[in-house]
C-alpha cells in the first residue's frame, strides 16, 4: 500500500499513535532562557506547529548535564527543576492532538565552556585542527558511566514532564557521535577500538533508557550516516551496522540525518538513495525510519516515503510555514526562501531565533518584503 504523508501512524514499540507522518524536526533555535528553562517564545513556536497539524513535535536538543550545554538559549533537562516548566509545553502540544518528543543531548567537545564553566571531555583527547591546542580530554570510565546515568535520568524527567517519548541525539558531531566516530574515538577499551565497541556508548544509553520507557513511551535515536562538513570519521557501512543493532534493540524509530533526504551516499554515488539502504536494513524489524533534509513540497515528501522512509522530519519548511501539513493537503505550493523577518515573526520565531536563522545562507532576506 502506498504511504501518504497524512496517514496516521503508530510508533510500533510504544504503541503511541500520531495523526500523520509529519514531524517537526528537532532544531537549534536559541530562544529559551539563559538558565535552560523553556521560554514562552519557545512554547509558542512549538505549539503553533502542533496547531498547524504536525503529528509529532520534537524539541531542540536538551542538555542532560550542565557541562553538556553547547549554546545560549538551549533548553535543559539536567535536573528536576526543569520538569514543572516543561509541563506547560507538553500540555500546549497535547491540546492540539500532537505527540511531543524530547531530544536528549550532550555536547562533549562541542559544549561551551564559557557557558558551563567546566572543562571539556570527549571519547578521546581532541585537538584544534589548526592550532593543535587540546580542546577536550579523554573521559575516564567513571565519567562515561555518569553520562549514561544522566541520559537515563533525563529520560525519566521527560516522562514526568508529560513528554510522549525521547530521542537520543547521536548525530552532528556531539558527544555520542564523538564515540561513534573513528576520527574522535581512539580508545582501546570497552568504549572504542573497533566499530562495534565505538557503538557501545550509544547502546548502553539506549538500554538504560529502555529499562524505564520501552513499551510505554517512544524511544528514538538520531544518527549521522556519513561524514558531513567537519563531522568526520563516520563510515556509511558502519552506520548500517549501527542501524541493524538499533533495529534489533527495538527502537521506535531511527532518524537518518541526511541534510538532503533525497541524496545518495557519498560512498556509493551510483547506488540507491541513502534512505533506501536503511529501509533494506530494516526488513524484518518493526522500527520506523525517519529522515529530514530539503523537503519543501508534497511531491518531495511522497518521493522520500516511496524510497523507504516512514516519518518525515521537516525543518526549514516548518519554520517558515507552521501550517505546512494543511498546505500540502490542499496541494498549495509553500513559498520558498528567503523569508522576511516579518514573515518569520508571524510564524512564531522570536528575535534570537530569527538571528540564528541568518546563519543559513539565503534563508532570511536582507531587506524586508
CATH topology of the largest domain: TIM Barrel
CATH top level class name of the largest domain: Alpha Beta
CATH superfamily label of the largest domain: Aldolase class I
Main-sheet strand order equals 3-4-5-9-10-11-12-13
Radius of gyration: 19 Å
The percent range for helix content is: 25-40%
Describe the structure.
The protein is of the alpha/beta class and 369 residues long. It has two domains: 9-336, TIM Barrel, CATH 3.20.20.70; 337-369, no CATH class. Helices cover 34% and strands 15% of the residues. It contains 14 helices and 13 strands. The protein has an eight-stranded parallel barrel, surrounded by seven helices. Helix 9 (274-281) links the parallel strand 11 and strand 12. The mean pLDDT is 97.
Amino acid at each position: 500500500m502506498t504511504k501518504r504523508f497524512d496517514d496516521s501512524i503508530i510508533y510500533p514499540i510504544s504503541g503511541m499513535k500520531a495523526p500523520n507522518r509529519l514531524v517537526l524536526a528537532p532544531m537549534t533555535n536559541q530562544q529559551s532562557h539563559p538558565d535552560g528553562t523553556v521560554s514562552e517564545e519557545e512554547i509558542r513556536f512549538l505549539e503553533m506547529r502542533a496547531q498547524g497539524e504536525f503529528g509529532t513535535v520534537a524539541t531542540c536538543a536538551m542538555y542532560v548535564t550542565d557541562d553538556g550545554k553547547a549554546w545560549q538559549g538551549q533548553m535543559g533537562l539536567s535536573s528536576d527543576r526543569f520538569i514543572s516548566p516543561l509541563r506547560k509545553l507538553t500540555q500546549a502540544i497535547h491540546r492540539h492532538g500532537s505527540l511531543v518528543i524530547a531530544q536528549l543531548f550532550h555536547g562533549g567537545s562541542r559544549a561551551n565552556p564559557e557557558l558551563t564553566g567546566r572543562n571539556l571531555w570527549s571519547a578521546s583527547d581532541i585537538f584544534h585542527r589548526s592550532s593543535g591546542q587540546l580542546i577536550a580530554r579523554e573521559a575516564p570510565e567513571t565519567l562515561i558511566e555518569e553520562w549514561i546515568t544522566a541520559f537515563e535520568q533525563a529520560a525519566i524527567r521527560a516522562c514526568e514532564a508529560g513528554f510522549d517519548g525521547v530521542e537520543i541525539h547521536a548525530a552532528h558531531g556531539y558527544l555520542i557521535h564523538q564515540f561513534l566516530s573513528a576520527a574522535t574515538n581512539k580508545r582501546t577499551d570497552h568504549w572504542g577500538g573497533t566499530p562495534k565497541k565505538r557503538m557501545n556508548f550509544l547502546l548502553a544509553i539506549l538500554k538504560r533508557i529502555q529499562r524505564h520507557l520501552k513499551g510505554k513511551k517512544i524511544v528514538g535515536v538520531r544518527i549521522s550516516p556519513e561524514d558531513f562538513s567537519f563531522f568526520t570519521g563516520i563510515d556509511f557501512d558502519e552506520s548500517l551496522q549501527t542501524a541493524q543493532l538499533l533495529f534489533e534493540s527495538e527502537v521506535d524509530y531511527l532518524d537518518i540525518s541526511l541534510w538532503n533526504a533525497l541524496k545518495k551516499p557519498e560512498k556509493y554515488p551510483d547506488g540507491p538513495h541513502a534512505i533506501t539502504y536503511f529501509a533494506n536494513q530494516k526488513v524484518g524489524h518493526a522500527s520506523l525510519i525517519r529522515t529530514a533534509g530539503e523537503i519543501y513540497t508534497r511531491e518531495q515528501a511522497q518521493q522520500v516515503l516511496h524510497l523507504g522512509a516512514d516519518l518525515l522530519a521537516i525543518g526549514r519548511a516548518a519554520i517558515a510555514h507552521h501550517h505546512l501539513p494543511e498546505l500540502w493537503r490542499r496541494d498549495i505550493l509553500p513559498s520558498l526562501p528567503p523569508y522576511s523577518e516579518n514573515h518569520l515573526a508571524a510564524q512564531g520565531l522570536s528575535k534570537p531565533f530569527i538571528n540564528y536563522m541568518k546563519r543559513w545562507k539565503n534563508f532570511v532576506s536582507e531587506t524586508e518584503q
